[in-house]
């Protein structure tokens, strides 16, 4: 039985399909950005990469949570 993905990661398949890049690449872009605050990064993804708010928010939230967990 496959468990349903919840939270920000639930957006990942549609992000990859819509924007044509793997999630790992998006995370690398976020981590290499000189910006550090959540909403700054969301705004940057929206402005520079044409990403919708929900997708940008999900990527940033997941990436920052990973980085803060280590």
User: pLDDT under 50 segments (min length 5)?
Assistant: none
Kindly state the number of beta strands: 0
The SSE string, one letter per element, is HHHH
Note the main sheet. none
Question: What is the count of distinct domains?
Answer: 1
What's the helix count?
4
Distance between the termini: 30 Å
Shape designation: globular
The share of residues in helices is 55-70%
Mean pLDDT: 94
Which band does the percent of strand residues land in?
under 5%
Query: Which secondary-structure class do the elements indicate?
Result: mainly alpha
Radius of gyration (CA) equals: 12 Å
Pfam families: DUF4287
Organism: Streptomyces fildesensis
Protein name: DUF4287 domain-containing protein
InterPro entries: DUF4287
Describe the structure.
This is DUF4287 domain-containing protein. This protein is an all-alpha fold and 70 residues long. It has four helices and no strands. The protein has one domain (9-69). Helix 3 packs across helix 4.
Topology of this structure?
Layout: H1 12-19, H2 23-32, H3 38-49, H4 53-69
Give the key terms.
single chain, mainly alpha, 70 residues
Quick gist of this model?
Helix content is 67%, strand content 0%.
């Amino acid at each position: 039985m496959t468990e349903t993905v919840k939270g920000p990661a639930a957006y990942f398949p549609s992000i990859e399909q819509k924007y044509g890049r793997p999630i790992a690449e998006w995370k690398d872009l976020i981590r290499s950005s000189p910006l550090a605050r959540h909403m700054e990064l969301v705004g940057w993804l929206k402005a520079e990469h044409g990403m919708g708010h929900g997708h940008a928010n999900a990527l940033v939230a997941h990436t920052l949570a990973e980085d803060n967990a280590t």
